[in-house]
Write a structure and sequence with these properties.
- By secondary structure, the protein is mainly α.
- The protein has six helices and no strands.
- The radius of gyration is 16 Å and the shape is elongated.
Protein backbone atom coordinates (compact mmCIF):
# COMPACT_ATOMS: atom_id res chain seq x y z
CA UNK A 1 0.00 0.00 0.00
CA UNK A 2 2.94 2.38 0.38
CA UNK A 3 2.49 5.52 2.44
CA UNK A 4 0.43 5.60 5.61
CA UNK A 5 -2.37 8.12 5.23
CA UNK A 6 -3.04 10.72 7.93
CA UNK A 7 -6.33 8.91 8.64
CA UNK A 8 -4.57 5.59 9.15
CA UNK A 9 -1.89 7.30 11.24
CA UNK A 10 -4.64 8.76 13.46
CA UNK A 11 -6.14 5.27 13.71
CA UNK A 12 -2.82 3.82 14.88
CA UNK A 13 -2.40 6.64 17.37
CA UNK A 14 -5.85 5.89 18.77
CA UNK A 15 -7.11 9.38 17.94
CA UNK A 16 -9.96 10.05 20.35
CA UNK A 17 -11.93 12.17 17.88
CA UNK A 18 -12.00 10.60 14.42
CA UNK A 19 -13.98 12.62 11.92
CA UNK A 20 -16.09 11.57 8.97
CA UNK A 21 -13.17 12.35 6.64
CA UNK A 22 -10.96 9.87 8.50
CA UNK A 23 -13.63 7.21 8.17
CA UNK A 24 -14.15 7.90 4.45
CA UNK A 25 -10.40 7.71 3.83
CA UNK A 26 -10.13 4.42 5.69
CA UNK A 27 -13.09 3.00 3.73
CA UNK A 28 -11.32 3.98 0.49
CA UNK A 29 -8.07 2.42 1.70
CA UNK A 30 -9.95 -0.73 2.61
CA UNK A 31 -11.25 -0.95 -0.97
CA UNK A 32 -7.71 -0.59 -2.31
CA UNK A 33 -6.48 -3.22 0.14
CA UNK A 34 -9.22 -5.67 -0.87
CA UNK A 35 -8.41 -5.04 -4.54
CA UNK A 36 -4.82 -6.18 -4.03
CA UNK A 37 -6.07 -9.08 -1.89
CA UNK A 38 -4.10 -8.13 1.23
CA UNK A 39 -6.37 -9.78 3.77
CA UNK A 40 -4.08 -9.18 6.77
CA UNK A 41 -4.06 -5.42 6.23
CA UNK A 42 -7.79 -5.50 5.44
CA UNK A 43 -8.48 -7.12 8.83
CA UNK A 44 -6.56 -4.35 10.60
CA UNK A 45 -8.41 -1.67 8.62
CA UNK A 46 -11.85 -3.17 9.30
CA UNK A 47 -11.17 -3.52 13.00
CA UNK A 48 -9.90 0.06 13.12
CA UNK A 49 -12.92 1.25 11.14
CA UNK A 50 -15.23 -0.41 13.64
CA UNK A 51 -13.49 1.35 16.54
CA UNK A 52 -13.35 4.75 14.77
CA UNK A 53 -16.96 4.49 13.64
CA UNK A 54 -18.22 3.59 17.10
CA UNK A 55 -16.43 6.61 18.60
CA UNK A 56 -17.58 8.94 15.83
CA UNK A 57 -21.19 7.71 15.98
CA UNK A 58 -21.35 8.16 19.76
CA UNK A 59 -20.04 11.72 19.49
CA UNK A 60 -22.34 12.61 16.59
CA UNK A 61 -25.41 11.18 18.35
CA UNK A 62 -24.59 13.17 21.50
CA UNK A 63 -24.38 16.38 19.45
CA UNK A 64 -27.64 15.65 17.63
CA UNK A 65 -29.34 14.80 20.95
CA UNK A 66 -28.24 18.15 22.42
CA UNK A 67 -29.55 19.95 19.33
CA UNK A 68 -32.90 18.21 19.61
CA UNK A 69 -32.60 16.47 16.23
CA UNK A 70 -36.06 14.89 15.73
CA UNK A 71 -34.94 11.86 13.70
CA UNK A 72 -32.17 10.78 16.05
CA UNK A 73 -33.60 7.28 16.54
CA UNK A 74 -33.64 6.62 12.77
CA UNK A 75 -30.19 8.12 12.44
CA UNK A 76 -28.85 5.87 15.22
CA UNK A 77 -30.38 2.83 13.46
CA UNK A 78 -28.40 3.74 10.33
CA UNK A 79 -25.26 3.84 12.47
CA UNK A 80 -26.10 0.36 13.76
CA UNK A 81 -26.60 -0.87 10.18
CA UNK A 82 -23.21 0.48 9.14
CA UNK A 83 -21.57 -1.23 12.10
CA UNK A 84 -23.31 -4.51 11.23
CA UNK A 85 -21.88 -4.32 7.71
CA UNK A 86 -18.41 -3.69 9.13
CA UNK A 87 -18.82 -6.68 11.46
CA UNK A 88 -19.91 -8.83 8.49
CA UNK A 89 -16.81 -7.68 6.64
CA UNK A 90 -14.67 -8.60 9.63
CA UNK A 91 -16.29 -12.05 9.82
CA UNK A 92 -15.70 -12.69 6.10
CA UNK A 93 -12.04 -11.75 6.43
CA UNK A 94 -11.62 -13.83 9.61
CA UNK A 95 -13.01 -16.85 7.72
CA UNK A 96 -10.71 -16.20 4.74
CA UNK A 97 -13.65 -15.33 2.45
CA UNK A 98 -12.04 -12.48 0.52
CA UNK A 99 -14.65 -12.64 -2.27
CA UNK A 100 -17.43 -12.40 0.33
CA UNK A 101 -15.65 -9.48 1.98
CA UNK A 102 -15.53 -7.67 -1.36
CA UNK A 103 -19.30 -8.12 -1.81
CA UNK A 104 -19.98 -6.80 1.71
CA UNK A 105 -17.57 -3.90 1.06
CA UNK A 106 -19.60 -2.96 -2.04
CA UNK A 107 -22.80 -3.13 0.06
CA UNK A 108 -21.14 -0.91 2.70
CA UNK A 109 -20.15 1.70 0.10
CA UNK A 110 -23.66 1.77 -1.38
CA UNK A 111 -25.16 2.06 2.09
CA UNK A 112 -22.81 4.90 3.08
CA UNK A 113 -23.51 6.82 -0.13
CA UNK A 114 -27.26 6.61 0.45
CA UNK A 115 -26.98 7.44 4.15
CA UNK A 116 -24.78 10.45 3.45
CA UNK A 117 -27.27 12.02 1.04
CA UNK A 118 -30.26 11.28 3.34
CA UNK A 119 -28.42 12.71 6.34
CA UNK A 120 -27.53 15.94 4.55
CA UNK A 121 -31.14 16.46 3.47
CA UNK A 122 -32.56 15.65 6.92
CA UNK A 123 -30.11 17.90 8.74
CA UNK A 124 -30.66 20.79 6.31
CA UNK A 125 -34.42 20.48 6.83
CA UNK A 126 -33.93 20.41 10.59
CA UNK A 127 -31.76 23.54 10.48
CA UNK A 128 -34.27 25.32 8.26
CA UNK A 129 -37.05 24.70 10.80
CA UNK A 130 -35.09 25.34 13.98
CA UNK A 131 -32.57 27.96 12.91
CA UNK A 132 -33.43 29.69 9.63
CA UNK A 133 -30.19 31.71 9.57
CA UNK A 134 -28.04 28.61 10.21
CA UNK A 135 -29.74 26.73 7.37
CA UNK A 136 -28.84 29.51 4.94
CA UNK A 137 -25.22 29.51 6.12
CA UNK A 138 -25.10 25.69 5.92
CA UNK A 139 -25.95 25.72 2.20
CA UNK A 140 -23.07 27.98 1.24
Amino acid sequence: MGEISPARDRLHLGAPEPDVGDIATLVDELGETLAIRDSRDAVRLVQGLIQCSERYFRREQAILRRQGFPRLHEHARRHESALLLLEQLDACLADGRLAGATVVYDDLCAFLDGARSRQKAEYAAFLAKSRPFAATAHRR
